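New to this. Help decode the following:
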Amino acid sequence: MTPRRAPTIYEVAAHAGVSIKTVSRVLNGEPNVRPKVQERVKRAVSELGYRPKASARGLAGGRSFTLVTFLDEALTLDHWKIDRSNPYVERLQFGGMMACQEAGYHLLFELLNAEAENAEAILSSTLSALNPDGVILTPPISDNQKILEILVRMGTPFARLSATETDVACLSITMDERAGAYEATMHLVGLGHKRIGFIAGTPGLASSRARQGGYIDAMQASGLPVDEATMLQSDYTYEGGKASGRALLSLAKPPTAIFAANDEMALGVIHVASELGVDVPRDLSVVGFDDFPASRYSQPTLTTVRQPVGDMAAEAAQRLIAHAAAKTTEELNEAIAISHAFVVRNSTAHPKES
C-alpha cells in the first residue's frame, strides 16, 4: 500500500481560503490575525492532519520551537537504579509538555551533572545541537552559579524552578517552601502538639533549608523549643524516613508528631511506626511535603503540603515561549511565585494527652 502523502501548507491555505503567510502567522502564534480567521486555519490544519516541520518553522521565524529541561543526573539515576518512579519529574514533564503542546512546541529532557569537570562542554554542545528557544533548570542545577553564567554567556533564555535568589538576570518560578513548612508545623501546633519532630531533606538543597527554616519559624512563633534531638538530617528518601522515624520514636520521650520534609520520608515514618506498634494518628501525627500520588493511597492517607510542580513547569514554558515569540533582545528577568495548598487527610489528630 502506498503511504498517504503528508498535506502541505499550500493545501492548508487553500482549504482555509487564506494566504500561505496567514497560515504561517497562525501556526507561529503571531498577533493581528482575526479570531475567525485563526479558527478557519486551525480547523483546516485539524481536518487535513497537517504537521508543520520544526526545521522549516525555525528557518521562517528564527525559532526552533523547542525547549530543553535539564534534570540533575545523579538524582534522576538514583531513582532509576532502584526501580522507583520519580513523581517530581512526572509532574514536571506533564505540566511542561501540556503547555508546549498547546503552543506547538516540543519539550526535551536532558540529564546534566553540573559538578562534572566537563559540564560546560556538555551544556554548550547540547545547546548548540538543539538550539532551543529556552531552557528550564530544575533543582539543584537551578542554583548552580556556573551553569547560570554559561547560559547568560551563550545568550540562552532560561527559567529556574524552586531556586534561591540570584543576581543573574533570569526567570525564576518558585513556591514559598518556607511558608508551606510553617503552615504544616502550625497545623500540628493547632492540634495541640508540643513535642514535634522534624526530618530534614538532602543537605545542600535550597528546598531542605527552606523547609527546615519554616519548621523552626513556626516552633519559635509558638513558643515551643527547637530541640536538636528531635530535628534529624535525612536525604528525601523512603529509607531515610524509616531510619529517622525509628530514631525519633526510640527516644526516651518521643515526639507526638513528626513533620517530614517530603512525602517519601513521611511514608517511611508511617511504615516504621506500624512496625513499632505506634498507631498513626492515634499515637503519632505525621505530615509530609509535596502531595505526590502515594500520599493519597497510604494507610492512613497523608496530610501534606501540595507543591505545584506541574503548574510551575507550565508557567516556565509559557513564559519562555512568549519571550521567544516576542523576538525581543531584552533579558527575561522576573520572579514568579506559584501558590501552594495544605491538604489535611487522616494522618494527623490531636495528641492523646489533650
Summary: The chain has three domains: 9-52, 66-175+309-340, 177-306. Residues 177-306 form a domain with the Rossmann fold fold (CATH 3.40.50.2300).
